[in-house]
Amino acid sequence: MAENLPSEFDVIVIGTGLPESIIAAACSRSGQRVLHVDSRSYYGGNWASFSFSGLLSWLKEHQENSNILSECSAWQEKILENEEAIALSRRDKTIQHVEVFCYASQDLDEDVEEAGALQKNHASVTSAKSTEAADSACLPTEDESLSTASCEIPTEQTPRSDPKNALEVNDVEATGEKENRRDDKTCVPSTSEEETSENVPIAEDTAEQPKKNRITYSQIIKEGRRFNIDLVSKLLYSRGLLIDLLIKSNVSRYAEFKNITRILAFREGRVEQVPCSRADVFNSKQLTMVEKRMLMKFLTFCMDYEEYPDEYKAYEEISFSEYLKTQKLTPNLQYFVLHSIAMTSETASSTIDGLKATQNFLHCLGRYGNTPFLFPLYGQGELPQCFCRMCAVFGGIYCLRHSVQCLVVDKESGKCKAIIDHFGQRIIAKHFIVEDSYFSENTCSRVQYRQISRAVLVTDKSVLKSNSDQQISILTVPADEPGAFAVRVIELCSSTMTCMKGTYLVHLTCTSSKTAREDLEPVVQKLFTPYTETEIENEEVEKPRLLWALYFNMRDSSDVSRNSYNDLPSNVYVCSGPDCGLGNDNAVKQAEALFQQICPKEDFCPPPPNPEDIILEGDSLQPEALESSAIPEASSETPKESANLGNPEEPSE
Amino acid sequence: MMAIRELKVCLLGDTGVGKSSIVCRFVQDHFDHNISPTIGASFMTKTVPCGNELHKFLIWDTAGQERFHSLAPMYYRGSAAAVIVYDITKQDSFHTLKKWVKELKEHGPENIVMAIAGNKCDLSDIREVPLKDAKEYAESIGAVVVETSAKNAINIEELFQGISRQIPPLDPHENGKNGTIHVTQSHLQGGRRCC
After folding, report:
1. Where does the signal sequence lie (chain B) (predicted)?
2. How far from chain centre, in Å, is Cα A152?
3. Residues A42 and A86 placed together within one structural domain of the fold
4. Which domain holds residue B54?
């Protein structure tokens, strides 16, 4: 890299997860000189989203990771006599128990590669405990093409895929819409017949595949860039702190969202839709007239429950589920309110907590649609990037693939004064924000972490059929046994830009009791069936089929008190990794609190100045011109309005 | 009333080749000799007629994130076109142009229109990159190419007209963007409640 980093900043932020990115944006916005680094090659840390090949590389890294030898300690020579160093970790230890299962048929096509895949080295992805996984795989099927253990990803490319080759593949991809042109143009040698037939879906399909919708593993690989697979699965409450911050700071202009279209419940072995808006309740076919009235009455009360203390004061001591039993609600309705609206469990929350959660849910309804939730197009991983862009717009400097060897502490003052990066460069600053996973074992020896259990599934249809195949659903599956945790299931369709057409991306999340697979597989088995080649006659009752599944545990550092870390100077601030909750409030609260420590009395991410976008020195532009060139609000913009939004200086008008 | 189509355009190219200057010239017909590396500018818009449509370009600047090769994938999301800029007086910048094209192929949308701008053509006496090389390369990747001078306002309009012409006509069946929500201030008020 030809350019050298400046050697002095006000704030250095290490890690590009959501809280770090928000702090970086806030600091930069209020005039601090910010250096924002990440040792990884991508934004977001454990908040990132990946294309399919990106995810495979990530999996691979997490296996290689474990045998990195601790490298040079040359930086130690750079520590002066009156200084001490806090070494940072060289390994990411936040991901454990990675297990991958491929159910889709794996053609013998060796060279299949995601179009445009970059420096992705498709080596075989083996589960961290592949043999064990193979032995104990619990989703058996007769089909021989099922490989329960690790999937063999088409093998060993040279680490840097030949650029020319990549371009060609990409060309194919671009023209690939016209399926019939694909075969002769493709530079991926189509060795297997099956593969060839894939490319000509209707016409020449062989007799064994009379039905549409047959998705092979090589198709997933080829269409891999259509996937944006989140490591953490969250949604935005439409009146949550993150939405408010996005709007206030105008960072929202960098992202687009989809409304979650359905709230689902899983009862008695069936998936059903939960009516939650007024319209839903009235249109519901599953509720009786009486139930509709009961539910509306109860929900109306919850909207401003505080005003009717008589209704709940007597029940404050008991759990919300017990309280619901005292209300005029059928068991059906109690279930909906408890699990799908308040999203709590039999025992977890008190009456007040349950009422608050219900109220929050109801308040978020209708702001953007009929459910309280939004999901960012291209995945949750866009959000840290949006804040990073805001930071950069106000002068923050960005360096990915940039690791920090140590923090340098001044012995006398006890404060951190600099970092030494992987080039041995010393960069000084006043404040240091470090994401939990960057700390070494020495620093974290007393820290107790919780874990999050995660599963990512690629499936062939929705858990609940409806007249649209583009539904985005959230489903809470209550715990089966006491002590276990409810599992949150979020099913994304292809229009969220997170999976290829004809597939669904399903995220399962819960607080860990055991390994991710042990925690989540029972729910996966309830909702899905492994993919098999043989067509099952009765398609109507068939569960969605699993094409691919990944399980892993992620460290949850959200609950860790700062005091649990050893010997941190007062100007080193800790950001946590993702928490297990559905919303993002935790990240925003954390960012705001740390920002207030660093910049007391400063406004947190105020709206950009208006005219905001352009700072030109000695500029003679009229403010109106600039203002009008700002992007318009995207609220149903009429042509007339838009015409007025053009730049008055434009010669074209 | 002509239909307005919003087209996101992202800028790529090495630091210092004149990305911001090109946009500044295009949008504001303005050139600043001392323009600092992109700070504070994130995007600008300009509307130009094209056939029976109006093309409203939403031009995103890199915000300097290209400096240490840390552009975020979100930068390319939904781009209709990319303007990839090199400096005709710097062979290096033409060399890295190819890297940007590769990056775009990897992270950008599939049908993105690419336009290559050889900027600083007012300095052709110290030229290092022959126009022929640029044309050959552009042809090989199916990109529009033009030499520009943001300073002297040469070919800037043409660059964007070239992009306009390459934009495929609007597909009436295309409904991928249906139901996409932009979260903005205007939603702060309102907020009808359902219950």
Report:
1. none
2. 25
3. yes
4. 1-164
Instruction: Answer yes or no: do A384 and A407 share one domain.
Output: yes
Residues in chain B within 8 Å Cβ distance of A650? 46-48
In chain A, which residues have pLDDT < 70? 1-3, 64-73, 107-112, 115-213, 533-541, 610-653
Size of interface A-B (CB pairs under 8 A): 218
What is the tens place of the pLDDT at every residue in B35-66? 655 555 567 889 999 888 899 999 998 888 99
Q: Which residue of A118, A277, A362 is in closest CB contact with B106?
A: A118
pLDDT above 50 (res B137): yes
Same domain, yes or no, for A295 and A422? no
Q: Give ipTM to 2 decimals.
A: 0.90
Determine how β-strand A49-50 pairs with β-strand A229-230: antiparallel
- What distances in angstroms separate CA A653 from CA A112, A627, A632, A647, B48, one per listed residue? 50, 17, 18, 9, 8
Q: Quote the number of domains for chain B.
A: 1
Inspect the interface and report whether the beta carbons of B195 and A374 lie closer than 8 Å: no
d(CA B68, CA B15) in angstroms, rounded, equals 10
Q: Is the pLDDT of residue B74 over 70?
A: yes
Q: Which residue has the tokens 């996005």?
A: A246
From chain A, the residues in CB contact with B15 under 8 A are 3
Work out whether the CA dihedral A456, A461, A463, A466 comes out positive or negative: positive
Residue B186 falls inside a structural domain: no
Residue A393 lies in a domain: yes
Note whether A573 and A425 are same-domain residues: yes
* Number of domains composing chain A: 2
Return the pLDDT at A127: 41
Enter the pTM of the model: 0.83
Residue A39 lies in a domain: yes
Looking at chain A, which residue has its C-alpha nearest residue B50?
A: A652
CB contact set of A106 (below 8 Å; sequence gap of 6+): A145, A147, A151, A152, A216, A217, A218
Residues of chain A found within 8 Å of residue B176, distances taken between Cβ atoms: 495
- A243, A250, A652, A653: best mutation site toward chain B, by most B Cβ within 10 Å? A652
Asked whether residue A319 falls in the same domain as residue A387, the answer is no
Are the beta carbons of B47 and A617 closer than 8 angstroms?
no
**Does residue B23 lie within any of the structural domains?**
yes
CATH of the domain at B77: 3.40.50.300
pLDDT in tens, A393-421: 999 999 999 999 999 999 999 999 999 99
Residue in B47, B111, B176 nearest the CB of A650: B47
Q: How far is A3 from chain B (nearest CA, A)?
A: 8
pLDDT for the residue A214: 78
Q: Which domain holds residue A296?
A: 277-364
